[in-house]
Design goal:
- This protein is an alpha/beta fold.
- Helix content is 51%, strand content 22%.
- The protein has five helices and five strands.
- Strands 3-2-1-4-5 form a five-stranded mixed sheet.
- The radius of gyration is 16 Å and the shape is globular.
């Protein structure tokens, strides 16, 4: 690492399964740090589930100490109740990194797929395959963790592009 390495946590919001993935980006080099899934009990109240996700994600943040965070934007589906519950989980995904003082990037699912696979309509299997290609030897804890790693990779690419543009502007 050159000393300009950036540790990124990607978060795939979900009320039952909230995926997380941490990578380190140093220029074009990416390195897997950790990944997993925070689970909540579907028989518990919404408030208890959100509290549980908050506590689990807070422990992940304390363990891996990321420099920046990214969360996938959710889409609205036909089930309004499910959409509201997912939005509540997304609130936890945004709140925990903000409480840690991190800037949080937000990306649409097709933007994540385009950054990782090159195609905005890529299948989940294609995304996971490309995550494995970019992070050789990674053991992925499940589909939600794979999505979270893809979100982290997307954010790392966008942050590096923004940094390069800022440095170019300073030189001009």
């Amino acid at each position: 690492m050159t000393g300009a390495a950036m540790r990124v946590i990607g978060i795939d919001p979900g009320l039952r399964n909230l995926g997380w993935g941490v990578i380190e980006a140093d220029g074009v080099r990416l390195r897997h740090i950790g990944n997993g899934i925070c689970h909540s009990d579907p028989t518990a109240t919404l408030a208890a589930r959100l509290l549980d996700l908050h506590q689990q994600l807070t422990r992940v943040m304390a363990r891996f100490l990321p420099d920046t965070a990214a969360v996938e934007q959710t889409f609205v589906n036909k089930d309004a109740v499910a959409t509201l519950k997912l939005g509540s989980a997304r609130g936890i995904a945004l709140l925990v990194p903000a409480q840690a003082g991190l800037e949080v990037g937000e990306y649409a699912p097709n933007a994540v797929k385009k950054a990782v696979v090159g195609v905005g309509k890529a299948a989940k299997e294609q995304v996971e395959h490309m995550v494995r290609m970019q992070l050789p030897g990674v053991q992925i804890e499940g589909p939600d963790a794979a999505d979270a790693l893809a979100i982290a990779i997307c954010h790392a690419f966008h942050a590096q592009s923004a940094r390069a543009m800022m440095l170019a502007g300073q030189k001009a």
